[in-house]
Amino acid sequence: MTLEQTATGYRSDLFIGGRWRGGSGERTFPVLDPSDGTVIADFAVATEEDCVAAVDAAEAALPEWSATAPRQRSEILRRAFDILTEEREHLAEIMVRENGKAFADALAEADYAKEFFRWFAEEAVRIPGEFRLSPNGDKRIVVTHQPIGVSLLITPWNFPAAMATRKLAPALAAGCTVVLKPASETPLTAAYVVEVLTRAGVPAGVVNLVTPERVGPAVERMMAHPAVRKLSFTGSTEVGRILLRQAAETVISTSMELGGNAPFLVLPGADVDLAVQGAVVAKMRNGGAACTAANRFYVHRSVYDEFAGKLTDALRGYSVGPGIDRANKLGALVSVKERDKVADLVDEAVTEGARLALGGRKLPDGAFYEPTVLLDVEHGSAITRTEVFGPVSPLVPFDDVDEAVRMANDTIFGLIAYVFGETGQAFSVAQRIDAGMVAVNRGVVSDPAAPFGGMKQSGLGREGSSEGILEFLEEKYIATAP
Ligand code: NAP
Protein backbone atom coordinates (compact mmCIF):
# COMPACT_ATOMS: atom_id res chain seq x y z
CA MET A 1 0.00 0.00 0.00
CA THR A 2 1.46 3.36 -0.98
CA LEU A 3 -1.08 5.63 0.67
CA GLU A 4 0.54 7.97 3.17
CA GLN A 5 -2.29 7.71 5.69
CA THR A 6 -5.05 5.28 6.45
CA ALA A 7 -8.72 6.16 6.70
CA THR A 8 -8.28 6.44 10.47
CA GLY A 9 -5.55 9.03 10.03
CA TYR A 10 -2.68 6.86 11.28
CA ARG A 11 0.47 6.98 9.26
CA SER A 12 1.23 3.43 8.19
CA ASP A 13 4.16 3.59 5.79
CA LEU A 14 7.88 3.05 5.87
CA PHE A 15 10.08 6.12 6.22
CA ILE A 16 13.30 5.85 4.22
CA GLY A 17 15.64 8.64 3.18
CA GLY A 18 13.14 11.33 4.20
CA ARG A 19 10.21 9.87 2.25
CA TRP A 20 7.09 8.03 3.43
CA ARG A 21 6.39 5.14 1.17
CA GLY A 22 4.93 1.65 0.91
CA GLY A 23 7.11 -1.45 0.82
CA SER A 24 8.66 -2.54 -2.47
CA GLY A 25 6.60 -5.72 -2.36
CA GLU A 26 3.42 -3.61 -2.13
CA ARG A 27 2.15 -5.68 0.78
CA THR A 28 0.72 -4.71 4.14
CA PHE A 29 0.03 -6.33 7.50
CA PRO A 30 -2.95 -5.55 9.73
CA VAL A 31 -2.59 -3.62 12.99
CA LEU A 32 -5.25 -4.74 15.45
CA ASP A 33 -7.08 -3.08 18.33
CA PRO A 34 -6.71 -5.79 21.01
CA SER A 35 -9.80 -4.60 22.87
CA ASP A 36 -12.09 -5.83 20.09
CA GLY A 37 -9.87 -7.41 17.43
CA THR A 38 -10.75 -4.85 14.73
CA VAL A 39 -8.19 -3.84 12.11
CA ILE A 40 -7.23 -0.20 12.67
CA ALA A 41 -4.62 0.12 9.92
CA ASP A 42 -2.80 -1.79 7.23
CA PHE A 43 0.91 -1.12 7.65
CA ALA A 44 3.47 -1.42 4.86
CA VAL A 45 5.63 -4.54 4.89
CA ALA A 46 9.32 -3.72 4.36
CA THR A 47 11.21 -6.12 2.13
CA GLU A 48 14.83 -6.96 2.95
CA GLU A 49 15.83 -4.58 0.15
CA ASP A 50 13.80 -1.81 1.83
CA CYS A 51 15.66 -2.51 5.08
CA VAL A 52 19.02 -2.29 3.33
CA ALA A 53 17.87 0.93 1.62
CA ALA A 54 17.09 2.36 5.07
CA VAL A 55 20.62 1.57 6.27
CA ASP A 56 22.03 3.07 3.05
CA ALA A 57 20.01 6.24 3.69
CA ALA A 58 21.27 6.44 7.27
CA GLU A 59 24.84 5.94 6.03
CA ALA A 60 24.47 8.70 3.46
CA ALA A 61 23.08 11.13 6.05
CA LEU A 62 25.73 10.37 8.69
CA PRO A 63 28.59 12.70 7.66
CA GLU A 64 26.42 15.81 7.63
CA TRP A 65 24.37 14.98 10.72
CA SER A 66 27.39 14.01 12.82
CA ALA A 67 29.00 17.32 11.86
CA THR A 68 26.05 19.50 12.95
CA ALA A 69 26.61 21.70 15.95
CA PRO A 70 25.47 20.05 19.18
CA ARG A 71 23.24 23.05 19.82
CA GLN A 72 21.44 22.45 16.53
CA ARG A 73 20.77 18.82 17.38
CA SER A 74 19.72 19.87 20.84
CA GLU A 75 17.18 22.37 19.52
CA ILE A 76 15.60 19.83 17.17
CA LEU A 77 15.14 17.44 20.08
CA ARG A 78 13.72 20.23 22.20
CA ARG A 79 11.20 21.03 19.44
CA ALA A 80 10.19 17.35 19.35
CA PHE A 81 9.58 17.60 23.11
CA ASP A 82 7.45 20.71 22.59
CA ILE A 83 5.37 19.06 19.85
CA LEU A 84 4.74 16.00 22.02
CA THR A 85 3.76 18.24 24.91
CA GLU A 86 1.09 19.76 22.65
CA GLU A 87 0.03 16.42 21.19
CA ARG A 88 0.35 14.07 24.17
CA GLU A 89 -3.31 13.09 24.05
CA HIS A 90 -3.04 12.18 20.37
CA LEU A 91 0.03 10.04 21.06
CA ALA A 92 -1.78 8.41 23.99
CA GLU A 93 -4.76 7.60 21.80
CA ILE A 94 -2.62 5.86 19.17
CA MET A 95 -1.05 3.73 21.90
CA VAL A 96 -4.42 2.84 23.41
CA ARG A 97 -5.72 1.76 20.03
CA GLU A 98 -2.86 -0.49 18.95
CA ASN A 99 -1.54 -1.66 22.33
CA GLY A 100 -4.77 -1.87 24.33
CA LYS A 101 -3.47 -0.13 27.46
CA ALA A 102 -5.63 2.06 29.69
CA PHE A 103 -5.77 5.73 28.71
CA ALA A 104 -4.13 6.90 31.95
CA ASP A 105 -1.23 4.49 31.34
CA ALA A 106 -0.90 5.74 27.76
CA LEU A 107 -0.88 9.36 28.88
CA ALA A 108 1.74 8.60 31.52
CA GLU A 109 3.83 6.90 28.85
CA ALA A 110 3.45 9.86 26.48
CA ASP A 111 4.80 12.13 29.23
CA TYR A 112 7.65 9.75 30.04
CA ALA A 113 8.47 9.32 26.34
CA LYS A 114 8.70 13.02 25.55
CA GLU A 115 10.99 13.65 28.53
CA PHE A 116 13.76 11.70 26.76
CA PHE A 117 13.73 14.34 24.05
CA ARG A 118 14.06 17.14 26.63
CA TRP A 119 16.69 15.30 28.68
CA PHE A 120 18.90 14.44 25.70
CA ALA A 121 18.39 17.92 24.21
CA GLU A 122 20.20 19.00 27.39
CA GLU A 123 22.83 16.25 27.15
CA ALA A 124 23.64 16.93 23.45
CA VAL A 125 25.54 20.05 24.45
CA ARG A 126 27.37 18.40 27.38
CA ILE A 127 29.25 15.55 25.69
CA PRO A 128 32.28 14.98 27.94
CA GLY A 129 35.98 14.97 27.09
CA GLU A 130 39.32 15.04 28.92
CA PHE A 131 42.58 16.92 28.53
CA ARG A 132 45.46 16.13 30.88
CA LEU A 133 49.18 15.68 31.16
CA SER A 134 50.53 12.12 31.30
CA PRO A 135 52.08 11.14 34.67
CA ASN A 136 55.66 11.30 33.32
CA GLY A 137 54.98 14.58 31.52
CA ASP A 138 55.87 13.31 28.03
CA LYS A 139 52.49 14.03 26.36
CA ARG A 140 48.99 15.43 26.57
CA ILE A 141 46.21 12.87 26.86
CA VAL A 142 43.21 14.14 24.92
CA VAL A 143 40.01 12.07 25.14
CA THR A 144 37.14 12.96 22.83
CA HIS A 145 33.87 11.29 21.90
CA GLN A 146 32.57 10.86 18.40
CA PRO A 147 29.24 9.46 17.17
CA ILE A 148 29.47 5.69 16.91
CA GLY A 149 27.75 5.71 13.52
CA VAL A 150 24.66 4.18 11.96
CA SER A 151 22.56 2.66 14.73
CA LEU A 152 19.89 0.01 14.54
CA LEU A 153 17.14 0.49 17.13
CA ILE A 154 14.75 -2.39 17.85
CA THR A 155 11.84 -1.86 20.23
CA PRO A 156 9.06 -3.91 21.89
CA TRP A 157 5.29 -3.39 21.98
CA ASN A 158 4.76 -2.79 25.69
CA PHE A 159 5.98 0.83 25.78
CA PRO A 160 5.89 1.64 22.06
CA ALA A 161 6.63 5.35 22.47
CA ALA A 162 9.01 5.47 25.44
CA MET A 163 11.21 2.57 24.33
CA ALA A 164 11.62 4.34 20.97
CA THR A 165 12.37 7.82 22.36
CA ARG A 166 14.74 6.36 24.99
CA LYS A 167 16.90 5.25 22.03
CA LEU A 168 16.15 7.89 19.39
CA ALA A 169 16.91 10.83 21.66
CA PRO A 170 20.43 9.83 22.79
CA ALA A 171 21.33 8.51 19.33
CA LEU A 172 20.37 11.78 17.65
CA ALA A 173 21.91 13.87 20.44
CA ALA A 174 25.18 12.00 19.93
CA GLY A 175 25.13 12.68 16.18
CA CYS A 176 24.21 9.18 15.00
CA THR A 177 21.78 8.34 12.23
CA VAL A 178 19.33 5.51 12.82
CA VAL A 179 17.02 2.82 11.50
CA LEU A 180 14.12 2.13 13.85
CA LYS A 181 12.43 -1.30 13.79
CA PRO A 182 9.37 -1.23 16.07
CA ALA A 183 7.40 -4.27 17.25
CA SER A 184 4.93 -5.49 14.64
CA GLU A 185 2.01 -5.09 17.08
CA THR A 186 2.68 -1.35 17.55
CA PRO A 187 4.13 0.31 14.42
CA LEU A 188 1.67 3.23 14.39
CA THR A 189 3.14 4.81 17.50
CA ALA A 190 6.64 4.53 16.04
CA ALA A 191 5.51 6.10 12.75
CA TYR A 192 3.93 8.99 14.65
CA VAL A 193 7.09 9.58 16.74
CA VAL A 194 9.20 9.57 13.57
CA GLU A 195 6.82 12.07 11.99
CA VAL A 196 7.15 14.32 15.05
CA LEU A 197 10.93 14.25 14.61
CA THR A 198 10.63 15.27 10.96
CA ARG A 199 8.34 18.14 11.94
CA ALA A 200 10.93 19.15 14.55
CA GLY A 201 13.53 19.45 11.78
CA VAL A 202 15.43 16.15 11.60
CA PRO A 203 16.95 16.08 8.09
CA ALA A 204 16.20 13.39 5.51
CA GLY A 205 17.97 10.07 6.09
CA VAL A 206 18.80 10.74 9.75
CA VAL A 207 15.85 8.70 11.04
CA ASN A 208 14.43 5.78 9.06
CA LEU A 209 11.62 3.40 9.91
CA VAL A 210 11.19 -0.17 8.68
CA THR A 211 8.71 -2.94 9.49
CA PRO A 212 9.88 -6.20 7.94
CA GLU A 213 7.61 -9.22 8.02
CA ARG A 214 10.30 -11.86 8.48
CA VAL A 215 12.11 -9.96 11.18
CA GLY A 216 14.98 -12.39 11.86
CA PRO A 217 16.51 -12.47 8.37
CA ALA A 218 15.80 -8.77 7.77
CA VAL A 219 17.57 -7.69 10.96
CA GLU A 220 20.44 -10.09 10.27
CA ARG A 221 20.82 -8.54 6.83
CA MET A 222 20.90 -5.01 8.29
CA MET A 223 23.41 -6.06 10.94
CA ALA A 224 25.68 -7.45 8.23
CA HIS A 225 25.69 -4.05 6.49
CA PRO A 226 29.19 -2.63 7.03
CA ALA A 227 27.82 0.81 7.95
CA VAL A 228 25.96 -0.45 11.05
CA ARG A 229 28.09 0.08 14.17
CA LYS A 230 25.49 -0.07 16.93
CA LEU A 231 22.55 -2.22 17.91
CA SER A 232 20.31 -0.94 20.67
CA PHE A 233 17.68 -3.54 21.51
CA THR A 234 14.82 -3.67 23.98
CA GLY A 235 12.86 -6.88 24.14
CA SER A 236 12.99 -10.42 25.44
CA THR A 237 16.17 -12.09 26.68
CA GLU A 238 15.52 -14.89 24.20
CA VAL A 239 15.74 -12.55 21.18
CA GLY A 240 18.55 -10.60 22.85
CA ARG A 241 20.69 -13.75 22.92
CA ILE A 242 20.14 -14.30 19.18
CA LEU A 243 21.10 -10.70 18.42
CA LEU A 244 24.23 -10.86 20.60
CA ARG A 245 25.39 -13.87 18.62
CA GLN A 246 24.71 -12.03 15.36
CA ALA A 247 26.47 -8.90 16.61
CA ALA A 248 29.61 -10.96 17.18
CA GLU A 249 29.91 -11.53 13.41
CA THR A 250 30.73 -7.91 12.70
CA VAL A 251 31.67 -6.90 16.28
CA ILE A 252 28.83 -4.41 16.59
CA SER A 253 28.51 -2.51 19.87
CA THR A 254 25.31 -3.59 21.63
CA SER A 255 23.02 -2.16 24.26
CA MET A 256 20.56 -4.72 25.57
CA GLU A 257 17.48 -3.95 27.65
CA LEU A 258 16.02 -7.40 28.21
CA GLY A 259 13.49 -9.25 30.29
CA GLY A 260 12.93 -9.03 34.02
CA ASN A 261 11.45 -11.04 36.89
CA ALA A 262 11.16 -8.38 39.58
CA PRO A 263 10.88 -9.50 43.20
CA PHE A 264 8.83 -7.32 45.57
CA LEU A 265 9.90 -7.76 49.20
CA VAL A 266 7.80 -6.74 52.18
CA LEU A 267 10.06 -6.96 55.24
CA PRO A 268 8.97 -7.29 58.86
CA GLY A 269 8.17 -3.82 60.21
CA ALA A 270 7.17 -2.48 56.76
CA ASP A 271 4.45 0.15 56.57
CA VAL A 272 1.83 -2.15 55.06
CA ASP A 273 -0.36 0.62 53.63
CA LEU A 274 2.65 2.12 51.86
CA ALA A 275 3.68 -1.33 50.60
CA VAL A 276 0.20 -1.94 49.19
CA GLN A 277 0.22 1.47 47.51
CA GLY A 278 3.63 0.66 46.00
CA ALA A 279 2.50 -2.83 45.00
CA VAL A 280 -0.49 -1.49 43.10
CA VAL A 281 1.75 0.85 41.08
CA ALA A 282 4.57 -1.66 40.60
CA LYS A 283 2.13 -4.34 39.48
CA MET A 284 -0.65 -2.52 37.66
CA ARG A 285 1.28 0.18 35.77
CA ASN A 286 0.76 -0.62 32.10
CA GLY A 287 -1.55 -3.48 33.09
CA GLY A 288 1.44 -5.46 34.35
CA ALA A 289 3.02 -5.50 30.87
CA ALA A 290 6.26 -3.85 31.97
CA CYS A 291 9.76 -5.25 32.26
CA THR A 292 9.79 -3.44 35.62
CA ALA A 293 6.50 -4.98 36.78
CA ALA A 294 6.59 -6.61 40.22
CA ASN A 295 6.44 -10.27 39.23
CA ARG A 296 6.55 -12.14 42.56
CA PHE A 297 5.81 -10.87 46.05
CA TYR A 298 7.79 -12.18 49.06
CA VAL A 299 5.96 -11.09 52.18
CA HIS A 300 7.11 -11.62 55.76
CA ARG A 301 4.69 -13.85 57.62
CA SER A 302 4.14 -11.19 60.33
CA VAL A 303 2.46 -8.87 57.79
CA TYR A 304 1.37 -11.44 55.21
CA ASP A 305 -2.37 -11.59 55.97
CA GLU A 306 -2.69 -7.83 56.32
CA PHE A 307 -0.79 -7.19 53.06
CA ALA A 308 -2.73 -9.84 51.15
CA GLY A 309 -6.09 -8.53 52.39
CA LYS A 310 -5.33 -4.89 51.67
CA LEU A 311 -3.83 -5.62 48.22
CA THR A 312 -6.88 -7.69 47.30
CA ASP A 313 -9.18 -4.88 48.47
CA ALA A 314 -7.20 -2.31 46.47
CA LEU A 315 -7.50 -4.34 43.27
CA ARG A 316 -11.11 -5.44 43.73
CA GLY A 317 -13.39 -3.18 41.76
CA TYR A 318 -10.62 -2.13 39.35
CA SER A 319 -12.61 -1.27 36.22
CA VAL A 320 -11.49 -3.43 33.29
CA GLY A 321 -12.38 -2.58 29.68
CA PRO A 322 -11.29 -0.77 26.51
CA GLY A 323 -8.59 1.79 27.30
CA ILE A 324 -10.24 4.37 25.10
CA ASP A 325 -12.93 4.70 27.80
CA ARG A 326 -11.02 6.78 30.32
CA ALA A 327 -13.01 5.34 33.23
CA ASN A 328 -11.28 1.96 32.79
CA LYS A 329 -8.16 1.57 34.91
CA LEU A 330 -7.07 -1.70 33.28
CA GLY A 331 -7.08 -2.07 29.50
CA ALA A 332 -6.53 -5.06 27.24
CA LEU A 333 -3.35 -7.10 26.93
CA VAL A 334 -1.64 -6.61 23.58
CA SER A 335 -3.14 -9.76 22.05
CA VAL A 336 -5.30 -12.78 22.79
CA LYS A 337 -2.13 -14.87 22.60
CA GLU A 338 -0.49 -12.82 25.40
CA ARG A 339 -3.72 -12.99 27.43
CA ASP A 340 -3.79 -16.77 27.11
CA LYS A 341 -0.17 -17.03 28.29
CA VAL A 342 -1.13 -15.17 31.47
CA ALA A 343 -4.24 -17.34 31.96
CA ASP A 344 -2.22 -20.55 31.55
CA LEU A 345 0.32 -19.45 34.18
CA VAL A 346 -2.44 -18.68 36.69
CA ASP A 347 -4.23 -21.97 36.00
CA GLU A 348 -1.00 -23.89 36.47
CA ALA A 349 -0.28 -22.13 39.78
CA VAL A 350 -3.78 -22.99 41.04
CA THR A 351 -3.36 -26.61 39.98
CA GLU A 352 -0.12 -26.66 41.96
CA GLY A 353 -1.93 -25.49 45.11
CA ALA A 354 -1.95 -21.67 45.07
CA ARG A 355 -5.22 -20.09 46.27
CA LEU A 356 -7.06 -17.40 44.30
CA ALA A 357 -7.90 -14.40 46.47
CA LEU A 358 -9.10 -12.40 43.47
CA GLY A 359 -9.69 -12.73 39.73
CA GLY A 360 -8.23 -15.58 37.74
CA ARG A 361 -10.49 -15.24 34.72
CA LYS A 362 -10.43 -13.98 31.14
CA LEU A 363 -13.20 -11.61 30.13
CA PRO A 364 -15.50 -13.06 27.44
CA ASP A 365 -14.58 -10.53 24.70
CA GLY A 366 -11.27 -8.90 23.77
CA ALA A 367 -7.79 -9.59 25.21
CA PHE A 368 -8.77 -8.77 28.81
CA TYR A 369 -7.72 -10.48 32.03
CA GLU A 370 -8.98 -9.65 35.51
CA PRO A 371 -6.69 -8.27 38.23
CA THR A 372 -5.63 -11.41 40.06
CA VAL A 373 -4.12 -12.14 43.48
CA LEU A 374 -2.68 -15.61 44.17
CA LEU A 375 -1.92 -16.67 47.73
CA ASP A 376 0.58 -19.19 49.11
CA VAL A 377 2.47 -19.59 45.86
CA GLU A 378 5.55 -21.83 45.98
CA HIS A 379 8.86 -20.13 45.28
CA GLY A 380 10.28 -21.94 42.25
CA SER A 381 6.90 -22.61 40.62
CA ALA A 382 6.49 -21.55 36.98
CA ILE A 383 4.72 -18.30 37.83
CA THR A 384 7.67 -17.15 39.97
CA ARG A 385 10.13 -18.09 37.23
CA THR A 386 8.33 -16.57 34.24
CA GLU A 387 7.86 -12.92 33.34
CA VAL A 388 4.06 -12.82 33.70
CA PHE A 389 3.39 -9.55 31.80
CA GLY A 390 -0.17 -9.32 33.09
CA PRO A 391 -2.16 -8.08 36.13
CA VAL A 392 -1.30 -11.04 38.38
CA SER A 393 0.21 -10.81 41.87
CA PRO A 394 1.61 -14.11 43.22
CA LEU A 395 2.31 -13.93 46.97
CA VAL A 396 4.94 -16.11 48.69
CA PRO A 397 5.27 -15.93 52.50
CA PHE A 398 8.71 -15.97 54.15
CA ASP A 399 10.03 -16.18 57.72
CA ASP A 400 13.61 -15.02 57.41
CA VAL A 401 15.03 -11.97 55.59
CA ASP A 402 18.12 -13.86 54.38
CA GLU A 403 15.81 -16.45 52.82
CA ALA A 404 13.86 -13.64 51.10
CA VAL A 405 17.07 -12.19 49.65
CA ARG A 406 18.09 -15.63 48.45
CA MET A 407 14.73 -16.18 46.73
CA ALA A 408 14.83 -12.68 45.21
CA ASN A 409 18.25 -13.43 43.69
CA ASP A 410 17.29 -16.94 42.58
CA THR A 411 16.73 -15.99 38.92
CA ILE A 412 18.71 -15.48 35.74
CA PHE A 413 17.25 -11.94 35.59
CA GLY A 414 18.39 -8.83 37.43
CA LEU A 415 16.54 -5.80 36.16
CA ILE A 416 14.73 -4.38 39.16
CA ALA A 417 13.57 -5.20 42.68
CA TYR A 418 11.25 -3.49 45.17
CA VAL A 419 11.94 -3.47 48.90
CA PHE A 420 9.50 -2.20 51.52
CA GLY A 421 10.59 -2.01 55.13
CA GLU A 422 12.14 0.16 57.81
CA THR A 423 14.51 2.49 55.88
CA GLY A 424 17.84 1.22 57.24
CA GLN A 425 17.00 -2.45 56.80
CA ALA A 426 15.37 -1.90 53.39
CA PHE A 427 18.45 -0.03 52.17
CA SER A 428 20.80 -2.75 53.35
CA VAL A 429 18.64 -5.43 51.67
CA ALA A 430 18.62 -3.30 48.48
CA GLN A 431 22.40 -3.52 48.39
CA ARG A 432 22.29 -7.32 48.57
CA ILE A 433 19.95 -7.73 45.61
CA ASP A 434 21.47 -8.48 42.21
CA ALA A 435 19.52 -5.99 40.12
CA GLY A 436 20.42 -2.90 38.14
CA MET A 437 17.68 -0.95 39.91
CA VAL A 438 16.08 -1.18 43.34
CA ALA A 439 13.06 0.81 44.50
CA VAL A 440 13.06 1.34 48.25
CA ASN A 441 9.64 2.08 49.74
CA ARG A 442 8.30 3.20 46.36
CA GLY A 443 6.58 1.58 43.41
CA VAL A 444 8.22 3.25 40.44
CA VAL A 445 11.81 4.11 39.49
CA SER A 446 11.76 5.14 35.82
CA ASP A 447 13.16 8.60 35.19
CA PRO A 448 15.03 9.85 32.09
CA ALA A 449 17.64 11.34 34.43
CA ALA A 450 18.41 7.97 36.07
CA PRO A 451 20.40 5.04 34.63
CA PHE A 452 17.95 2.35 33.50
CA GLY A 453 19.24 -1.15 32.91
CA GLY A 454 19.77 -4.62 34.24
CA MET A 455 22.33 -7.03 35.61
CA LYS A 456 22.71 -10.71 34.70
CA GLN A 457 20.53 -11.74 31.73
CA SER A 458 18.41 -8.59 31.97
CA GLY A 459 20.82 -6.71 29.80
CA LEU A 460 23.98 -4.82 28.98
CA GLY A 461 24.44 -1.06 29.20
CA ARG A 462 22.25 1.70 30.56
CA GLU A 463 19.67 4.00 29.02
CA GLY A 464 18.76 7.49 30.20
CA SER A 465 20.92 9.56 32.58
CA SER A 466 24.26 10.94 31.46
CA GLU A 467 25.31 7.40 30.49
CA GLY A 468 22.60 6.98 27.87
CA ILE A 469 24.36 9.17 25.33
CA LEU A 470 27.68 7.35 25.85
CA GLU A 471 26.08 4.20 24.41
CA PHE A 472 26.03 6.04 21.06
CA LEU A 473 29.50 7.57 21.30
CA GLU A 474 32.88 6.09 20.60
CA GLU A 475 35.72 7.21 22.85
CA LYS A 476 38.88 8.35 21.11
CA TYR A 477 42.26 9.04 22.73
CA ILE A 478 44.65 11.37 20.97
CA ALA A 479 48.23 11.62 22.26
CA THR A 480 49.88 14.93 21.54
CA ALA A 481 52.81 17.04 22.62
CA PRO A 482 52.78 18.20 26.23
P1 NAP B 1 10.48 -9.58 21.65
O1 NAP B 1 9.61 -10.66 21.18
O2 NAP B 1 11.86 -9.89 22.05
O3 NAP B 1 10.46 -8.47 20.50
C1 NAP B 1 11.14 -7.26 20.64
C2 NAP B 1 11.51 -6.72 19.28
O4 NAP B 1 12.43 -7.63 18.66
C3 NAP B 1 10.33 -6.59 18.32
O5 NAP B 1 10.52 -5.45 17.53
C4 NAP B 1 10.43 -7.86 17.49
O6 NAP B 1 9.88 -7.73 16.20
C5 NAP B 1 11.94 -7.99 17.39
N1 NAP B 1 12.38 -9.35 17.08
C6 NAP B 1 11.77 -10.53 17.33
N2 NAP B 1 12.51 -11.55 16.89
C7 NAP B 1 13.62 -11.02 16.34
C8 NAP B 1 14.78 -11.58 15.72
N3 NAP B 1 14.95 -12.88 15.56
N4 NAP B 1 15.72 -10.71 15.28
C9 NAP B 1 15.58 -9.40 15.43
N5 NAP B 1 14.52 -8.81 16.01
C10 NAP B 1 13.55 -9.62 16.48
O7 NAP B 1 9.85 -8.82 22.92
P2 NAP B 1 8.37 -8.25 23.09
O8 NAP B 1 7.46 -9.41 23.34
O9 NAP B 1 8.02 -7.28 22.02
O10 NAP B 1 8.54 -7.38 24.42
C11 NAP B 1 8.46 -7.92 25.67
C12 NAP B 1 9.83 -8.16 26.27
O11 NAP B 1 10.57 -6.95 26.27
C13 NAP B 1 9.75 -8.58 27.71
O12 NAP B 1 10.67 -9.63 27.95
C14 NAP B 1 10.18 -7.33 28.47
O13 NAP B 1 10.73 -7.56 29.73
C15 NAP B 1 11.16 -6.73 27.54
N6 NAP B 1 11.32 -5.31 27.83
C16 NAP B 1 12.48 -4.91 28.45
C17 NAP B 1 12.66 -3.58 28.77
C18 NAP B 1 13.91 -3.10 29.44
O14 NAP B 1 14.14 -1.91 29.45
N7 NAP B 1 14.73 -3.97 29.99
C19 NAP B 1 11.66 -2.65 28.47
C20 NAP B 1 10.50 -3.09 27.85
C21 NAP B 1 10.35 -4.44 27.52
P3 NAP B 1 8.43 -8.33 15.86
O15 NAP B 1 7.46 -7.61 16.72
O16 NAP B 1 8.27 -8.01 14.41
O17 NAP B 1 8.49 -9.80 16.17
Note the main attributes of this structure.
2 domains, 14 helices, Aldehyde Dehydrogenase, Chain A, domain 1, six-stranded mixed sheet, 482 residues, Aldehyde Dehydrogenase, Chain A, domain 2, binds NADP nicotinamide-adenine-dinucleotide phosphate, alpha/beta, seven-stranded mixed sheet, disordered N terminus, globular
Structure summarized in a few sentences:
By secondary structure, this protein is an alpha/beta fold.
- DSSP helical segment count: 14
Distance between the termini: 62 Å
CATH architecture label name of the largest domain: 3-Layer(aba) Sandwich
Mean pLDDT: 96
Flag low-confidence runs: 1-7
Classified by CATH, the class of the largest domain is: Alpha Beta
Q: What is the CATH H-level superfamily of the largest domain?
A: Aldehyde Dehydrogenase, Chain A, domain 1
The set of bound ligands, ions and cofactors reads: NADP nicotinamide-adenine-dinucleotide phosphate
Overall 3D geometry?
A: globular
Strand content: 15-25%
Radius of gyration: 23 Å
CATH topology category name of the largest domain = Aldehyde Dehydrogenase, Chain A, domain 1
- Provide the spatial order of strands within the biggest beta sheet: 14-15-16-13-12-18-19
Instruction: Give the fraction of residues assigned to helices.
Output: 25-40%
Kindly state the number of beta strands.
22
Q: Compute the number of structural domains.
A: 2
Biggest sheet details: 7 strands, mixed
Structural class: alpha/beta
